[in-house]
Amino acid sequence: MAYTKLIYHIVLRTYQGTKPIAEAHERDLYMYIYGFCKNHQSQLYRINGMPDHIHLLVNLHPSIAVASFVHDLKIATHNFMTANRDKYPLFEKWEQGYCALTYSEAEKERVIQYIIHQKEHHRSVSARDELMALLHECGVEYNEKYI
């Protein structure tokens, strides 16, 4: 028997930082993502974001690699937003890359609160600075050119 708890904080950015996710329609997108996670036997703890990016805290099923999950999620949400062009007229695609950071059960509530307060957080911090801070906090080396 395998015992796992694979908690990922995943951040997806829209292509070239466009802002296609209007607050009036973000709930529809978030509910779609909730269903996607459920259909992939993964537990979505929290989702929130801004017009140009989204944050998810998810416990992935142990049979799913994070790269496969993100790949499939990008395709599914791309198809969803394209099919609902009236709600997401500015959406082209997601950026090729993504951010996926692991957290322990002990850190879960702190990350949930961070995701809940995205809109307040971004009143003073840009998406770029936020991503660099997250990467730095987790000890991930990065090239600022690609942030």
Description:
By secondary structure, this protein is α+β, with helices and mostly antiparallel strands. The protein has helices spanning 23-39, 66-83, 108-116, 118-121, 127-137; strands at 6-13, 43-50, 53-60, 99-103. Helices cover 40% and strands 20% of the residues. Strands 2-3-1-4 form a four-stranded antiparallel β-sheet, with helices on both faces. The protein is globular, with a radius of gyration of 15 Å. The mean pLDDT is 95.
The number of strands is 4
Order of helices and strands: EHEEHEHHH
Cα-based radius of gyration, to the nearest Å? 15 Å
Fraction of residues in helices? 40-55%
Residue runs with pLDDT of under 50 for 5 or more positions: none
* Tally of DSSP helical segments: 5
Structural class: alpha+beta
Shape: globular
Keywords, please?
alpha+beta, globular, four-stranded antiparallel sheet, 147 residues, 20% strand, single chain
List the helices and strands and how they pair.
Blueprint: E1 6-13, H1 23-39, E2 43-50, E3 53-60, H2 66-83, E4 99-103, H3 108-116, H4 118-121, H5 127-137
Antiparallel strand pairs: 1-3, 1-4, 2-3
Helix pairs in contact: 1-2
Summarize the structure.
This protein is α+β, with helices and mostly antiparallel strands. Helix content is 40%, strand content 20%.
